[in-house]
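Q: I'm teaching a short session on how sequence maps to structure, and I want students to see two examples side by side rather than one. Could you give me a first protein with its sequence written out and its structure tokens following it? Keep the formatting plain so it prints cleanly on a handout.
A: Of course. Example one:
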Amino acid sequence: MQVIERPLTLVDQVIAALRKEIAEGRFAPASRLPAEQELARTLGCSRPVIREAVSQLKADGILVTTKGVGAYVAANPAGSVFRLPRGDTSAKDLAQLFELRFWMETAAAEAAALRRKTADLARMRDALKRMERHAGDYPAASKADVDFHAAIAGSTQNAYLVAFSGFIEGQLLKAREMGWQNSARLAGGPRPAQQEHLRLFEAIQARDPDAARQAAAAHLLASGRRMGLDVQKLERMAHPDRP
């Protein structure tokens, strides 16, 4: 069954149009944008829509505004905020986000095995206990799952990885909860996922980076299947020696 995707809102369309104009050089860095009324007429929308789009582009570092003067393109309009289009994440977005998660978390597991501290292990143990205790409570189990992976990210002692990992986890939260629901219908129920987490924890605890990366890859591939994703490409990456 095909996933139905929500169309972009008017604000999102205006943002995309202005970004395109800026990227293609029609609005140069430090140049002034046309007046709000003119933009509304050109783009075929209302002034409140233009106002909200400009506000978001300002928050993203693309535009700067001066009271009583108007909006200008920033000197460096590349922006500093990572943002996905608003609305439901499409099936394609979900697959690509999961692929990004796979690359990031396998590397994070390896780093965590080398850098983890006693407090990091305590956070992981607590999350494992909650996952087991709430195995039939999908939102609670999913939250404990998120906390377990957040503890691994924290074990890398890299603040940027922690922040970006949190963003990815937020985007995949509904899919993760679906994975826990699906596990109830599979052989063994949630037990396989709990065993995967335990093997990953034990590798990090043992300070074995190779085993941690392998355990993370095995867990993520199985997790992707429970989410209903096609993980064949990732399997080939994880096991290039297999036919």
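Q: Perfect. Now a second example for contrast.
A: Example two:
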Amino acid sequence: MVYVTLVATMYVQYQYRMLIYTGMYFYFWQSRGADTETFGQQFYFGMFLSDMANHQPAQTFISSRRWSRMIFSVTVAALGLFAASYPAHNAEWCGWSNFLLQLSKYIFPHDINLGKRYTALGVDLVILAIYLSPSVKSFLSRPFFLWLGRNSFAVYLTHGTLLRTVLTWMIYGISGQPWKEWKNEKGEMEHSPYLPRGSNLTFAISIPLWFALVYLVAHYWTSYVDSFCARITQKLETHVFEQTEKPVNGLPM
């Protein structure tokens, strides 16, 4: 989707290209399709910010309004955190979450996952606030945060497996108990008893250790697996694509 849009708009003027990104963003906003807020909206929001970051007049306009930018950034960040805090269940139990529930009837289509929609909206607003704040961007450019960002894709690739194996073993213990389901005399489905969950102390110890393990694995994945794959890819490219130009001896004429 991103590449198709880039090819289709490569010769479009900046202001019209930004209008296309905005239109596509709101197209996915009103769509009732599954996961449009996770993929479609985020694709075009990222493309919008990327183009704006490379447009010098837009950057000059933003940087010349320091106080307006600061007030706007703080306000947008607060709204983003408020929207992203929408609960997954029972939103009507609290006044603030019930307000978001009622608001959703006017800003989102019906029969969607409101938790994901509000989370996507909140993340976009927080990203916009960071984008407009040089001090926050400078803070997030420190080596530790750059290291987290460098390993983020490896975390995405490995955390699911580590969660379903190592973290499960840490919280519930290692058991050979099989999972069985059957029907009782009344025709109702029954199953084996659940494994007992660890105590609060178990959680307090296991979660930090598991996060450390995830980033350790991600670090080695980025350092060795990614580099190995890059070397294999380079060899395949060298093998598949022929050299179209022969080396020339001596100085060019």
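Q: What should students look for in example two?
A: Point them to this: The two ends are 45 Å apart (CA to CA). Also worth mentioning: The mean pLDDT is 90.
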